[in-house]
Design brief:
Length: 407
Amino acid sequence: MNRRQLLKGLSTALGSGSMYALAAPLQSALGQSACTANRRAVVTIFLDGGLHGPSLLVPRGTSSYFAAHPTLGITNSIPIDAIHGLHPLMTSFNTIRAQGQLALLYGAGYPNHSQSHLEARTFLGRTTESPLVSSGWMLRYGQHHCDAAEAPLLFAVGPGGAELTGGAFDVTTVDSTGRVGLPDSSALTEYDLAYRNEVIRLLRERGPVLLSEDAQRMNHAWDTMEAQSALLTTVLAGSQTLGPYPNTGLGRNLRIASQLLKSDVINVKHIMIRLGGFDTHAFQGTALPPLLTQLDQAVGVFWNDLSAVGRAEDVLISMRSEFGRTVENGSAGTDHGQGTTEVLIGTRVQGGVRSPAYTEADFTQPFVPVKFDFREVLEQILAQHLDVDPIPVLPEAFNRIGLQLFR
């Protein structure tokens, strides 16, 4: 089968409780196929829990930072300039930075930035509080810019995110080994799961006799699951990775991402991966270094893998978190803040620190404030990397400070 045959009619998306979810729009703007015109893709690594940004992008030249972080202050950062440095464990990031392919931004957020995990994640995914917009930005991208006859795929790893909710999609789940399952089966009780399996058995025996609307959806989900399993088997069997990838959650997931991105069977446009554990209310000095090491090592191997086959020319890595954190608390940790850190890796990004610089005033208050709207970054990713009109995807007006993120 060729790519068009495999992808024609594909119509699945992410739902809550999924591991991997494959999404293809059921409906697209007539005559538009901007996302099938090229092989450009975005890999989003969501740093779940709220990253303490100054521990990654260190304010090495800001005395108030050290005063506000008596035990957590990073004194041996890798220098970027007189004001900024990288955490000393981020050696792969620094290699990419030296090649001019790493952009760092601190203070990303939105007006009245919530300090609730759920509310912040939801806003980042939907990009608006308008009741007229119920879908996530990934689905709006697919709806407005993709050709449904040859739909490219959107992937996600981890719990369902607002980026891929609110659309008229069915769900198939796939774990990191390529095994395909029923929607949300991990969240079902043993009784519920037995009932669902019995309904599916009856449907398959009776053929066209449908028990209910829910049964119809389950029957469709079963058929879709089988089709997706065959598709993934083809893709993963035909795509090799360079490595070795670290044997960590992020390492395994980025290895899968590499296989998907290298495939000439599917035109992947977005892969979302979550790395949790950043909610460091206590003992951050012990909890954060292993997470940063996992991030640095896995991303380093992934980027080298893509670069070796020329795929890095089309792929952008985007990292963000739901919010930043406060200055050091009384438990050698940090609490929920507002302004957070974003990272971009790509061959066409403007390298270096692209956000307003740290100031002494940033650390004389409980947390670093929002310095720019995160949607300005997303707008440039859509317009300058994915090469599509961002307006249908980002319908709500927001303030821009003139970030220049791409060459």
